[in-house]
Write a structure and sequence with these properties.
The complex is a heterodimer of chains A (426) and B (239).
Chain A (H helix, E strand, L loop, with lengths): L3 H13 L1 H34 L8 E6 L17 E2 H10 L3 E9 L9 E3 L2 E3 L2 E5 L3 H4 L2 E6 L4 H6 L3 E5 H7 L10 E4 L2 E11 L13 E5 H7 L5 E2 L1 E6 L5 H15 L10 E5 H44 L1 H9 L4 H44 L15 H28 L2 H5 L3
Parallel strand pairs in A: 6-11, 8-10
Antiparallel strand pairs in A: 1-13, 1-14, 2-12, 3-6, 3-13, 4-5, 4-9, 7-10, 8-11, 9-10
Helix pairs in contact in A: 1-2, 2-9, 2-11, 3-8, 9-10, 9-11, 9-12, 11-12
Chain B lengths: L3 E14 L2 E14 L3 E5 L6 H8 L7 E6 L2 E2 L5 H11 E4 L11 H11 L4 H14 L15 H13 L5 E5 L7 H16 L3 E5 L3 H4 L4 E6 L2 E7 L1 H10 L1
Parallel strand pairs in B: 3-8, 3-9, 6-7, 7-8
Antiparallel strand pairs in B: 1-2, 1-4, 4-5, 9-10
Helix pairs in contact in B: 3-4, 3-5, 4-5, 5-6
Classes of the chains: A alpha+beta (426), B alpha/beta (239).
């Protein structure tokens, strides 16, 4: 296998026609390079997007109320309505498929101007009312302190959890905010924690970094929202379909509020499960496309190799004939051709793999550098474009197999050469 | 065990080309003794190349029989044929047929490579044979750097290295001038002295006259097969 005579022949064949060898190998090189960079880019896109919501409960949905669009039971169309605390209780009672239920308040009307004040520091931040359960749908990690808990809800404590940006503006660097007081829209609240969302790419109404979260009940009472629930999120129990559960939930709400069950516009909802499914299908599609294109390019490269091997066999007809005459077995010739083909493909492919990985690494470095330099708060949609070791190994295996297949036809042709034909005097 | 190295009986061979069948060998009978030096003569189309191919197990025959060293050579697969060629037969060609990118030593060593002899060992053996041919200092030259006579001597060394029983030489001097032709013939005769049978296909009378026996082919049959009387004389001169 590693006898010098075998390799001498291979290197001789490559050397004698450097340009041809390089151009041929380029086909395979390009195939693997494309496969690697595209897979890496696909992975980068996937990482970037899923990183923004990978901890978000994928079996969740959000429901909100819209103006009615159909008259019903004597009510006119275009009526404004709101969910209430009672609705939440009804859902709990009547829709057993609902697991986590998290009503929310959005303080649109109390978030105007410089509404948050602490000493000389002021800022304009969105105020939301949250239940502790919401942390199960859209998990946060706590930079300081804790999240809102049941006692806060029960006692309607005047406490708040703030986003990272709020902390930056309202507090000095590295200052411990827990236990400090802030005036939020005119009322004093004690800070109990700083939350950093694990899903920075999903924002409802406002950037989560710029939100002051109050206990849901506290906010209802303090800011005069009464029994109102602006919207809510829920998760479906294991095995239950989110869209079916959402349908049941909206029907319960409609019957409570005398809304035509046929009025599809009266409630809006956002089904996270469906979005995730769609994204997954999209990624699947992207991956399939990448592989089809990559393998296609690779096949084109392999055909090139095969072609050139045929030419090499033809050129070497005489040599092969001599070798046969002085005792080379067919297998010696076949293995020679196959080795040559695999060698050419593997070298070319390996270079493609190496360069592809290098390009991905450079892109990764550039992204990290850009992220470090970036001051704006927007999330990334491209992260760690890389291919795993299994993928690299698969690529190598594909290469060797490609080389073997590419060499097969030429090798067949080589052993069909009759020594006599090869040795005829010119 | 008979004393014949090559025994051919009623050998027939035709080439089928579409609907045309060309009957090339029409019943050849031939018996070549161990250590004999024979030439096969004949005009082109007489079937001498075909006969040589069959003797060299490079081609099959249709009818008759062929015994090489008392082994009946029949239709066999290529692997087996390659082994027999490697073991029993050395080839010398008109156009030398050296591998262009291998140096003299590597060319000579090639048959041993197919016998899976280690590189070091086969190169040592190759050097011995080159020494015998007086080409030791040319061992690391490529064929393109050598003269015709030198190339043919290397080809002979390559044919000898696997210690064959027979050397088949197809117009070995066809590409050489008369001076070098004589040198090559001298070497072949020396080789013959060591007990290796040599069959030379040629159309030159000068060459044929230096062999012990001359077989003339004509239209696929043996026209004459006689002992060359001038050989004895000459070999006395040589020795």
């Amino acid at each position: 296998m590693f006898d010098k005579d075998r390799w001498q022949e291979i290197f001789n064949a490559i050397k004698q026609n450097k340009l041809r060898s390089v151009l041929t190998a380029f086909g395979v090189f390009w195939g693997i390079f494309m496969l690697v960079t595209m897979t890496g880019a696909g992975n980068g896109l996937m990482n970037g997007i899923t990183d923004g919501f990978k901890d978000f409960a994928s079996n969740s949905a959000f429901v909100w109320a819209n103006n009615t669009t159909k008259p019903y039971k004597g009510f006119r169309q275009g009526r404004q309505w709101n969910f209430t605390n009672d609705d939440m209780a009804s859902i709990r009672r009547e829709v057993p498929e609902v697991d986590v239920l998290a009503p929310k308040l959005q303080g649109w009307n109390i978030s105007n101007g410089e509404n948050v004040i602490r000493g000389l520091k002021t800022g304009s931040f969105r105020v939301n009312g949250e239940m502790p359960e919401y942390n199960l749908i859209d998990p946060n990690e706590m930079v300081y302190g804790r999240y809102i808990n049941d006692m806060d809800i029960h006692h309607r404590r005047k406490v708040c959890v703030i986003g990272e940006r709020v902390y930056e503006v309202m507090f000095d660097k590295d200052e411990d905010p827990v236990g400090e007081y802030m005036k939020v829209s005119g009322v004093w609240f004690q800070v109990i924690g700083v939350a950093r969302s694990k899903n920075p790419n999903i924002n409802i109404g406002a950037d989560k970094k710029e939100v002051v979260s109050l206990p849901f009940t506290t906010m209802q009472q303090t800011f005069n929202y009464g029994n109102d629930v602006h919207f809510f999120g829920f998760t479906a129990r294991k095995g239950a379909s989110v869209s079916e559960t959402a349908e049941k939930v909206t029907q319960v709400l409609k019957s409570k509020h005398s809304i035509d069950p046929e009025d599809l516009e009266a409630t809006g909802h956002f089904n996270v499960e469906e979005q995730v499914k769609m994204l997954n299908y999209m990624f699947l599609g992207i991956n399939a496309l990448i592989w089809i294109v990559g393998i296609g390019t690779l096949i084109a490269g392999a055909v090139g190799i095969s072609n050139i091997m045929l030419v090499i066999v033809r050129e070497r007809t005489k040599e092969i004939g001599i070798q046969r005459a002085i005792g080379a077995r067919p297998w010696t010739i076949v293995s020679q051709i196959l080795t040559e083909s695999v060698f050419l493909t593997t070298i070319a492919g390996f270079l493609g793999l190496a360069l592809g990985t290098l390009v991905l690494h450079a892109a990764d470095m550039a992204i990290i550098a850009a992220q470090a330099a970036k001051t704006s708060e927007e999330g990334t949609f491209f992260k760690s474009p890389e291919i795993g070791l299994p993928m690299a190994l698969i690529a190598l295996a594909v290469l060797v197999i490609t080389g073997l297949i590419a060499g097969l036809i030429p090798a067949q042709k080589a052993i069909r050469i009759k020594p006599i034909e090869a040795l005829r005097h010119e | 065990m008979s004393n014949s190295i090559i025994r051919v009986e009623a050998l027939h061979k035709s080439y089928v080309n579409g609907s045309n069948s060309l009957h090339v060998l029409k019943g050849i009978d031939m018996d070549i003794q161990r250590g004999e030096m024979v030439s096969i003569m004949g005009s082109s189309g007489s079937g001498k190349s075909t006969l040589l191919n069959i003797l060299g197990i490079l081609d099959n025959y249709d009818a008759g029989s062929y015994h090489l060293d008392d082994i009946h050579i029949t239709k066999m697969n290529e692997t087996k044929a390659a082994q027999y060629r490697n073991k029993y037969i050395g080839f010398v060609f008109q156009s030398f047929n050296l591998i262009s990118f291998k140096n003299a030593m590597e060319n000579v060593a090639l048959p041993l490579y197919y016998q899976k002899v280690s590189r070091k060992k086969r190169n040592n053996v190759a050097m011995e044979y080159l020494e015998r041919m007086g080409l030791r200092e040319w061992a690391h030259h490529l064929p393109s750097e050598l003269s015709g006579g030198q190339k043919q001597r290397i080809a002979i060394a390559r044919a000898l290295i696997s210690k064959p029983k027979v050397i088949l030489a197809d117009e070995p001097t066809g590409a050489l001038d008369s001076q070098t032709s004589m040198e090559v013939m001298e070497i072949l005769k020396e080789v013959n002295q060591t007990g290796i049978a040599i069959i030379i296909v040629t159309h030159e009378n000068d060459i044929a006259n230096q062999t012990q026996r001359i077989i003339r082919l004509r239209d696929g049959v043996i026209e004459s097969n006689h002992i060359n009387h001038s050989f004895k004389l000459e070999s006395v001169e040589v020795n």
